[in-house]
Amino acid sequence: MATYLYRLGRFAFRRRRLVVLVWLGLLAAGIAGAAALSGPTANGFSIPGTESQRAADLLQDRFPQAGADSATARIVFQAPPGQKLTDAANTTQVRQTLGRIDHAPQVARITDPFTAKAISADGRTGYAQVTYDVTAQEVTPEAQDAVATAVEPARAAGLTVEYGGDAMQAQDSQSLTEVIGIGVAAVVLLITFGSLIAAGLPLLSAIIGVGIGVTAISAASGFIDIGSGTPILALMIGLAVSIDYALFIMSRYRHELSTGLEPDEAAGRAVGTAGSAVVFAGLTVVIALAGLFVVDIPFLTQMGLAAAFTVVLAVAIALTLLPALLGFAGRRVLGGRIPGLRAGDPEAAGRVSAGRRWGRFVTRRPVAVLLVTVIGLGALALPATDLELGLPDDSTAAPDSTQRKAYELLSEGFGAGFNGPLMVVVDAGASADPQAAAAATATAVRGLPDVTLVTPPTFNPAGNTALLTVIPATGPSATQTHDLVKAIRALPDAGGAEVSVTGATAVNIDISDKLGGALVPYLSLIIGLAFLLLMLVFRSVLVPLKATLGFLLTVAATFGAVVAVFQWGWLAGLFGIEGQTGPVISMLPIFLIGVVFGLAMDYQIFLVTRMREEHVHGGTPRAAVVDGFAHGARVVTAAAVIMTAVFSGFILSGQTLIREMGFGLALAVAIDAFVVRMTIVPAVMALLGRHAWYLPRWLDRLLPNVDIEGETLRRHLPPAPDPREPELVSRDRGH
Question: How far apart are CA 495 and CA 473, in angstroms?
Answer without folding.
Answer: 28
